[in-house]
User: Fold this.
Amino acid sequence: MSETAASESDALVFFGATGDLAYRQIFPALQALIRRGRLEMPIIGVAKSTMDVDGLRARAHESLERHGGADAGAFAALSKQMQYVNGDYRDPETFRRLRQALGRTSRPLYYLAIPPDLFGTVVEGLAGADCLHGARVVVEKPFGRDLASAQALNRTLHEHCPESAIFRIDHYLGKEPVQNLLYFRFANSFLEPIWNREHIESVHVTMAEEFGVEGRGRFYDGVGAIRDVVQNHLLQVVALLTMEAPLGHLAEDIRDGKQRAFRAMRPLAPSEVVRGQYAGYRQESGVAPDSDVETFAAMRLHIDTWRWADVPFHVRAGKHLPQTAMELHVTLRRPPQRVFDDAPAAANVVRFRLSPNVIISLGVRVKVPGEAMIGDNIELLAQHIAEGDEMAPYERLLGDAIRGDAMLFVREDAVEAAWRIVDPVLGDKTPIHQYEPKTWGPAEAARTSVAGSGWYNPGPSVQRPL
Ligand code: BG6
Assistant:
């Protein structure tokens, strides 16, 4: 929720109109917004290609067919509203033509779905053609390559736009189960008294993907897992899991709370990070034959606050792992005494499964029916069954940006704070270990878990019966 009633944008311009992100995410989001009646404005794609506007419409149609299906009415509206400006981002003429295409609109939203090294060029082009009055600018991740480049990018953007006009996207923040982390923690009273070092032994966060770089080798080889998903998606999730209660419910209260959580995360130590690369990665198209870019990273993170001191956070992400799932496991301390004569009590675990399905569960021990006081480990579990009409992250985030609601976007200080955490381990500061596809990364990853106690792998997607 924004503090002031912000005015809605009256045109949507997306740079990178012929690119991969537009194809996978933006066209479906535009169609969804049109179906909800939330996008009655000119939609202008910008890119440099041999396509004309009909070519762009055809590409939009193909994208929709591939991602959930084209809705005849909404696609007709999208086609009608869509314009295309073809040109080089370094050529001022491109921006003059864009200015013309914008006509009488006065509050455009620019979505930069382009590589980060072009953000500055495009914003300067927009400023040069007088396109930035009343505008909002949405920028994709990764926001920079490290702390220094993120700071430089922030300076460039701020030369032309106030912070209130800049919307840094992290699509994880648009996901329902990610928002629910914040909601679940602070809309209930039972969790907060135990959500600290007195009761929590460790936290494991895993983002596993069964697939590889899927034709994105050129992009990925310049980035690697730490820049691609740790600096943003994973640290955002950890911030939501660990932040203090916000002082209020306004966007800035929540962003302030998250910012303090980032500031408390200790910069990663190279000795507590293990990087891996799946066998066969160097043969992927667009990847350097001697690449030492990581497709897997496991790390131990520390949060230096009274609440979290000495609680280890194990965070890992990787491609070509045995399954696709994102889970957070919060392990509580064991009971202080062994009262029953069966196996030692297992620790209680709070499990947040964020994808591919959504589960919140509590791992507990219950007595098995019978004469003996013998127990079994079970999960008390709530599973969210998706109903057809839920908003996908890009639809949610674009809709928010159009309305000027910045709550689910990353603020300048937060993006820099997150880079500060990963900066010491970027690039080749740690060795790279090869791992076989369909395994949980290199064996060395065990080193980052507490006393080699191992990692929690994402659990079952459904509960076995009692
Ligand atoms: C993107 C990364 O930001 O997130 C990809 O660039 C990754 O490498 C993707 O696969 C994962 O997103 P999701 O929503 O499919 O979990």
Summary: The first helix runs from residue 20 to 35. The mean pLDDT is 94. The chain is about 30% helix and 20% strand. The first strand starts at residue 11 and ends at 15.
